[in-house]
Amino acid sequence: MKRLIPFLFLACLAASSFAENTSHDQPIHDAAREGSGDDVRRLLKADPKQRDVRTALGSTPLHLAATNPDTSAMQALIAAGADVNARDNDGATPLHMAAYSSRPKNTQLMLEAGADPQAKTDNGRDPGSMARKVKADETAGVISLWVLKGCKAGKPC
């Protein structure tokens, strides 16, 4: 048993080291998720291609910014040309993420930028159903009104 303990310790250490080395998160992902528009703009100025870099789950920085209460990070990515209809590994768009995170302002901004309110995930969920699933009534309302009014991308509604 005493010989087994060092082996288990080394196995755990190797596993945690492997997990760290396989992470696809970049500083742009952290800035999008928790930072401000200034943080995102600074990183994009250094390397504009970062706007499309994906995590291990296929999320773009815009997917992560859609969940950030500070909308300036999301606005910076949209202004830099980030794809508002990009799909992650589950088929979710940034609009799905905003809806599921109960972010009505982010949802409105995504729609105005051209996000597809009818887009379906691989499991068949549209952004409105994602919002209703988590009882994000205001967010679901934003999406429903957008569709009912026949609003168009690129214009406030």
Automatic annotation (TrEMBL):
Q: Which InterPro entries match?
A: Ankyrin_rpt (IPR002110), Ankyrin_rpt-contain_sf (IPR036770)
Q: Which domain of life is it from?
A: Bacteria
Give start-end of the signal peptide: 1-19
Matching Gene3D superfamilies, A to Z? Ankyrin repeat-containing domain
Q: Which UniProt keywords apply?
A: ANK repeat, Repeat, Signal
Intervals holding ANK repeats: 57-89, 90-122
What protein am I looking at? Ankyrin
Q: Which source organism?
A: Dechloromonas aromatica (strain RCB)
Ranked from the top, the taxonomy reads: Bacteria, Pseudomonadati, Pseudomonadota, Betaproteobacteria, Rhodocyclales
